[in-house]
Write a structure and sequence with these properties.
CATH architecture: Alpha-Beta Complex
Shape: globular
Radius of gyration: 13 Å
Structural class: alpha/beta
Strand content: 15-25%
Number of domains: 1
Distance between the termini: 12 Å
CATH superfamily: Protein tyrosine phosphatase superfamily
Strand order of the largest sheet: 2-3-1-4-5
CATH class: Alpha Beta
Helix content: 10-25%
Number of strands: 5
Largest sheet: 5 strands, mixed
Order of helices and strands: EEEHEEH
Length: 105
Amino acid sequence: MTVVMICFEVHVAKCPIVDYFQSGPVEIVPGLYLGDSVHSSQQEKLRKIGITCLLNVSTTCKNLFEHEFGYMNIPVNDNDSANISSWFGEAIQFIGECFTLYFLA
């Protein structure tokens, strides 16, 4: 039931406890993965996991496979002053639509 991956630009210096070199995205709840820009650029790995949609939380990451995956962009920078909470409603709606499309297919 894998559907959505939330991807973001990683700044290793800001996240010293994150194991940046792990092999792929992490499933945070069933069907919802968290990954970074490297993970979102690995088309075969995304397919193998079963990802169908990507929530791109970055101003720099490109949507590399728009012909194959659904995308939503949240253009925020990775810093303490970013107002990501203003995007929560739209992000939740996008994730819900992705799950709905998955179950209707």
